[in-house]
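Exercise: predict the fold of this chain.
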Amino acid sequence: MCGAELQSLPEGMQRVARLLQSRGHPHMPRMLDAAARTAQQAADALGVHVGQIAKSIIFRRRHDEAAVLVVTSGDRRVDERKVEALVGPIGRADADFVKSRTGFSIGGVAPLAHAQPPVTLIDRELFRFDEIWAAAGHPHGVFLLRPADLEHLTGAPVADVVQEAP
């Protein structure tokens, strides 16, 4: 992505694109015609299985107010007890907390390029797929990657952090 293309992106997407570019990631962010604020909206826009959407869920760790990012498969729900067993007690994060800690608005939180580095966990269920899509810092922005790329780009551990599938 050249400088002019990068400058035309919203600020959050520029941060994501710069990080991906600096790490040699082959897929740059792209804008979708419609907003992809939910995993289902993103899957529909991309024509992929909802499980291939890597959704970023932010929690607030109670003892130090750190942001805890759980990157999970779009067809799974986070099991907060499993997350707490790994990082300590957590609570819900409101929109102001998410924006101040990540630099992104809810509905466009990327799994990387945060304003303040979060405690991050990656859902092992994402590894069911060869390719996944993640938010790129804007409700219309996404980028393609493999689950192993996510692990490499974030340095986060892969864990069992979701409720049992029905």
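Check your answer against the key: The two ends are 42 Å apart (CA to CA).
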